[in-house]
Amino acid sequence: MSNSGGSLCFGDEGLKLVRDVKRSRDSGIFHAYNDAGVRNVKLEMKYLLDGITSLLERRAVLARAAEQGSAGRGGDGRGGSDYEGDGDAVVDAESSQAALELSQGCGMATHMHLNALRRNRRLLLVYHRARMDSLRDMAWELGGGGAGVGAVQTDARSNAVAANSDDDEDVDMDSDRHTTTTSNNNNSHPSGLPHNVIRAMSPNELSFLNSYHSLLEDYRGTMLDIDLAAPLVPPSDLFIDIRVLRDLGEIVTESGSILKLMAGDQLYVKRTDVEKFITLGYAVQI
Amino acid sequence: MADSFWDIDHVLAEQQKIPCFVALDVPGYGFLDGNSSENLCKNTRIELPFWMVTPLIAAEQVELEYPHCFARRALDDVATSAVSVNLHGLCPFFFLFGVKFVNLIEDANLGNVLADAFSQRIAEIMQYSQSGRSYSKFISTLDDTEKQRILQQDSEVGQRTLLWRQDPNSASTSTSAH
């Protein structure tokens, strides 16, 4: 219903952005930054701002004309307005009335422009904030196993996949991370976010994420004995059943044995050995 | 208002259009009327989104009509049998928008109808979510607030209850961990 009514209106472009972010939140997929959309909204805002300036000027001119008309002088032609009388008193009064009304109309148009400007600002802010929030959440959720913590190394050598898992966010809540660290996968970002998320970000968002990540690392570094990234729900089992979704090759587990993970395998393994893969969506818990 | 500024649902709810009459000729807004003239004429009936209407109402520059989801006919339906009305079809943000609209116009009757409908429907939603039946058709008639906030929480609670019935101890620990 919201897009009924046919007529386009200011703010529609920005609304698309917010709709997009809602869809992305509902589906759990981090959508690509809509650069063109944001640019359009900015252009619209610039147009509105110019409109406000010219409307205000026009209004001032009209108001002056109306004032002069009602003062009975008329005919001055100041400001080049069409609404000046020709010296005839009646016409004068009428035209000044018209000028007054039109100036009020301009006032209303200015008001509407201003509302649209405010609306656009809000849409842009909401769009960016919502994206930022989900990035921040992901940084907490996936950024896990702080590189600063001297942890167990499960070596994810592996040509591990030109990372493109669609379900980056729907990592089940109980896929926990303790102090396990995989030495950073060549393909993923230091923050531990999957590649497709990184690609969906704007440059500004990327730099935000980088700074936020290092901030997070510093904060974690102050409390080495507590893993802040650990999930709040305790794991129910030490060992879990997993199904591997991608060829990951062989990994060396905590205990030193070698685990071979090929697509389609179902294994009963120690949770901490495979957590990273579950987080990244390369394996699922059954 | 301050809290809802960042809320995506509020942003979308405020996009709902409300029919209204402009009190003045407005230069440059002819496009709202659908014709190509430059000015929007006085007393034209146009549809403006809620966010545009609110400040204009305060300045008494427009006069409102009831949007079709709160028109007499729709409200009669809702008052008669709140449970069987397809609210999502009327307006996806029926209640959220309703609260905003009621505050705008101060219509006690509309407020009462909405409140009654909401409480009647909650009972029905609870029943559906607890029974675990397939209810996709029912869901499609729910307004956004009902779908997101209530139904999801309901079914979560339902699952926990189920767990608790099976094994009171384990369920209670997992609840407290949350």
TrEMBL record, chain A:
Its main location: nucleus. Residues 237-283 form the DNA replication complex GINS protein PSF1 C-terminal domain. Keywords: DNA replication, Nucleus. GO terms for biological process: DNA strand elongation involved in mitotic DNA replication. Gene3D superfamilies: 1.20.58.1030. It is found in: Nucleus. Residues 67-88, 158-194 are annotated as: Disordered. The keyword Nucleus applies. One of its GO terms (cellular component) is GINS complex. Transmembrane segments: none annotated. The keyword Nucleus applies. Residues 111-223 form the GINS subunit domain. InterPro entries: GINS_A, GINS_bundle-like_dom_sf, GINS_Psf1, PSF1_C. Belongs to the GINS1/PSF1 family. Required for correct functioning of the GINS complex, a complex that plays an essential role in the initiation of DNA replication, and progression of DNA replication forks. GINS complex seems to bind preferentially to single-stranded DNA. Component of the GINS complex. This is DNA replication complex GINS protein PSF1.
TrEMBL record, chain B:
GO terms for cellular component: GINS complex. Gene3D superfamilies: 1.20.58.2050. Pfam families: PSF3_N, Sld5. GO terms for biological process: mitotic DNA replication initiation. InterPro entries: GINS_A, GINS_bundle-like_dom_sf, GINS_Psf3, GINS_Psf3_sf, PSF3_N. Residues 6-56 form the DNA replication complex GINS protein PSF3 N-terminal domain. Residues 75-148 form the GINS subunit domain. The keyword Nucleus applies. Component of the GINS complex. PANTHER family: DNA REPLICATION COMPLEX GINS PROTEIN PSF3 (PTHR22768). The GINS complex plays an essential role in the initiation of DNA replication. This is DNA replication complex GINS protein PSF3. It comes from Chytriomyces confervae.
